[in-house]
Amino acid sequence: MLDQKLKWIFNTFSGSVFNTVISTFCIVLLFFLINNLLGFISNSEWAVVTENRRLLLIGRMPQEEEWRAWSILWISSFLIFSSLKSFVSPSKKELAFISLIVMILCLIFTTESSIFKVSITLLISAFSYFLTKYISNTPIIHKFNKFLIILWIFLVPLIFCLLLIADGPKPTLWGGFLLNIILASVAIGIGFPLGLLFALGRASSLPAIKIACTVYIETIRGAPLVAWLLLAWFVLPKFLPEFWGLNDISVVVRAMIILSAFTSAYTAEVIRGGLQSIPKGQIEAADSLNLNVITKTSIIILPQAIRVVIPALISTFIGVFKDTSLVFILALTDLLQVGRIIPEQDPEFFGKALEALCVVAFMFWIVSIALSNLSSRVEKSMGIGTR
Amino acid sequence: MKNKSKKQIGNEIISTDNITKSFGKFQALKGITSKIYEQEVVVVFGPSGSGKSTYIRTLNRLEPHDSGKIIVDGVEITDDVRNLQHVRSNVGMVFQQFNLFPHLSVLRNITLAPQKVKGLKRSDADEIAMNLLKRVGIPEQASKFPSQLSGGQQQRLAIARALAMQPKIMLFDEPTSALDPEMIKEVLDVMTELAESGMTMICVTHEMGFAREVADRFLFFDEGLIVEEGTPDHFFNNPKEDRTKLFLSQIL
Fold it and tell me: What's the predicted TM-score (pTM) here?
């Protein structure tokens, strides 16, 4: 074992002149990078982050409304960590990695006043994980899994309830990381089913539906998201009828509409690619068995089409999640905007943009990496027993 | 030639009257007139591009015909959806490339149509499926996925899937052409058993040994027309047309 490693190192450095040059260059580069990184971490002042935790996480939501964010966090951690055991069952390595990330998050965001609530969060997470582990060999697990799936489906409505009940803060006060999560969930939750319909519509043999769907998709994709958000800011209220106060809808809702429309157009094209990959024989077999259109589409065509495009689909979703940071155009303060504004406007933190943006990038990275891991998991589980 | 003499040929169940079909400029069928009777086994053969596949695919409207008249089980095949449903629920089809549903288990491949089309309960559909799997000799594969089966097993599964809808007529479109040689026999055995049970069958195949033993009648296709038809004995002993003689000499 050790022999092999030594051999590998030897080969890497002296296999050929070219190899030696490249390897040496890389090592020097790596040394400088690590040196600079360590220097940055030790020299930087993280006060910009620690003082503004609340802004980064929930934006300008008033202090007395904080309980809403905490309950959302608790429900989410229950859901995430139960599902982690139930649906993902990570290896020890992955578990260590997840723990490391949770630890870093706690280090960044715990304050003396919130230490109790953070502990509750950690307890809930650990408890959900081990509870699921404990019951995973009992018959209850099937019912529990069903419960989890239903809870996932209703998570976004639940979050809305928690934010709005008992005279919640105005949606324009929602902000920070919470706003990114809400916008992305809504955009994907509405955009994906819509995209499915548009993809089927575009593949339809009825000319009217086909043309309508094609026009929609190409129009939405034809302009940048920024342009659509500006449109929502200036024009959308004028298009909407006056009754029910529709022309005065909150910018958050406008952002949701635009992001959902955008997601649906991109998702539709991705799924259409999947639809085209279905062999003609599958449709002929379904026809020869006299399956009706709905069965044929929902049981034969779509499951196979979606399986093919899962990587592209998740990639689209990750893009949508990151695009939610563009809602600063609608004067909303999402995570990135908070990270940008503080060092610009608060004299106390002038010039501390790098520290703030590092944390922002880290938060985006966690969600993106989680999604992309989910993608490979789903691919593997769907790959069982297929061609 | 076991039961052939005893076999009762019944009433007319399919009749085609002068049907034509074109793909662009290529005319695949140039006027096919034929009659198929209940419990009859008809083997269709001919050179590649002769229209034999197109012919049996028009019989359940996988290919809509351009002109002419097709009557299956007393119902004319037209654009009318209700007619089409009647025909398709009485006609089963087995394809050259199997066309199994790769994402569904072997059992679910069979139970899907009875559950969704006929509205059977899951338990009843499962029972029918298990019986059919026993009939085609692969009951132990029920929980696997199609890709985990050999080619011969996949084609037998495809036959079971078509039989689950209890069709009156079975169409076979070159069912053994995509199989490795050692697997052809197991599929032909299932088809022979099916023929002996009295199923009306139309097979496009070049397995002449099987055809000779099982078929009641041969149809020889060339260039979109039925060139010659008759009993196996007629074809093997004194075919009339030169094209038939030439083709038979090439494949035998």
Answer: 0.81
